[in-house]
Amino acid sequence: MTTTATPSYGTATALTITLASLATSAGLTVGRQSTVADNTSDLGIDAIVQAQITVGTTPTANTWIELWAFGTADGTVYGGAAGASDAGLTPTDKSTMRLLEVIPVPVTTSNVAYISGSHSIQNAFGGTMPRKWGVFVTHNTGVNLNATGGNHTVKYTAVKYASA
């Protein structure tokens, strides 16, 4: 008897991250981190992450928004000196995090929602899911992000195997 493993996608789940009015960071060194997703309870083989981030009023053209992932092997010490909760973050070293995407902001149009691609957390960490992981957002648009919390989302979908 042959067993076939196929991917099984969970429900899209929001990561808590307060991006409303997030201040610009000229050097892309200051931003906001999410709460962490706990893969010790999700038991996913992967998680697919996607963000919607809305710029504020009259951003500077040709700037960008960065979306990073951070993780932990032991469940307590996170890359970039991140923590487990939604909070402001100035990473000690972004090279200990994984860059998911640089989202270009090419124009000065106010309140545009930029949607990232879909990113594999497993791939970001070299093929293995961290025990716990989260995201970090920073931007250099020259203005605060849009002030309405509902105009920003970071969601993930856990991926597991189902056998048939």
Looking at this protein, list some descriptive labels:
164 residues, mainly beta, Jelly Rolls, 6-stranded antiparallel sheet, 12 strands
Compact overview of the structure:
The chain has two helices and twelve strands. With 164 residues, the protein is mainly beta.
What can you tell me about this protein's structure?
With 164 residues, the chain is mainly beta. The chain has one domain (10-163): Jelly Rolls (Sandwich). Helix content is 5%, strand content 40%. The chain has helices at 39-42, 121-124, and strands at residues 5-9, 13-14, 31-33, 37-38, 46-54, 63-72, 87-89, 98-105, 113-115, 119-120, 132-139, 153-163. The strands form 2 sheets. Strands 1, 2, 5, 9, 10 and 12 form a 6-stranded antiparallel sheet that branches. The longest helix is centred in the first third of the chain and has 4 residues, at 39-42. The protein is globular. The model has no long low-confidence stretch (mean pLDDT 96).
Instruction: Supply the CATH class.
Output: Mainly Beta
Q: Give me the Rg, rounded.
A: 16 Å
CATH architecture: Sandwich
What's the order of the H and E elements? Answer: EEEEHEEEEEEHEE
Bin the strand percentage: 35-45%
Point out poorly predicted stretches. none
Helix/strand structural class = mainly beta
What is the distance, rounded to the nearest whole angstrom, between the alpha carbons of the first and last residues? 11 Å
CATH topology tier name? Jelly Rolls
Instruction: Tell how many strands the DSSP assignment holds.
Output: 12
Q: In which range does the helix fraction lie?
A: under 10%
What is the averaged pLDDT score?
96
Give the overall shape, derived from the CA principal axes: globular
